[in-house]
Specification:
The protein is mainly beta. The chain has one domain: Immunoglobulin-like, CATH 2.60.40. Helices cover 11% and strands 34% of the residues. It contains one helix and ten strands. Strands 1, 3, 6, 7, 9 and 10 form a six-stranded mixed beta sheet that branches. Keywords: Signal.
Length: 167
């Protein structure tokens, strides 16, 4: 006995439903976004002496529209790309010269969360056995979580960088 039209229709629908949901399942791979925040300070190519502080101002892109944006700030001796950021949103040991720390940016006029650290207005250029004229890079990794909300997407990362010349 041949299957009825209704039976074939439900079978086809079930196959399509399964195929769609299998392909729409969240990836375990961390995704690096192509949009990114803006480093307003320091400006690219600014000259800073080791041990001196330089202004730091980062405007997060907040592409996930989170209440709070998490960033981490690094110093590298090369121009970093998204390929240098590992699956946890960090630079691996040996891939960076200095780690300034993690900070939490309140968005939408929210207050600073108790126990969190907002980004400082300046950062020190640490003494790292650098020579005058050396170029180092300030790198900021912004993390977006649950973006878009409710889909259980793994954290996504953005990278912003600028160069600093050792004076």
């Amino acid at each position: 006995m041949a299957p009825s039209f209704t039976s074939r229709l439900f079978t086809t629908a079930a196959i399509l439903y399964s195929a769609f949901h299998a392909s729409a399942a969240p990836s375990t791979r961390q995704v690096l976004e192509t949009s990114h925040g803006i480093l307003s300070a320091p400006s690219s190519g600014v000259v800073v002496s080791q041990g001196s502080s330089f202004p730091f101002e980062f405007q997060d892109s907040n592409w996930c529209e989170d209440g709070y944006s998490s960033i981490s700030v690094w110093l590298t001796n090369y121009a970093p790309t998204y390929l240098n950021v590992n699956s946890t949103g960090q630079f691996s040991e040996g891939e960076y010269s200095y780690y300034f720390g993690s900070y939490l940016i309140p968005n939408f006029g929210l207050p600073v969360l108790s126990g969190s650290t907002p980004p400082p207005s300046s950062l020190p250029l640490p003494g790292l056995n650098l020579s005058t004229g050396d170029e180092v890079y300030l790198a900021v990794v912004e993390t977006g979580t649950s973006c878009p909300p409710g889909l259980h997407i793994p954290p996504q990362y953005e990278l912003t960088e600028t160069s600093i010349i050792v004076g």
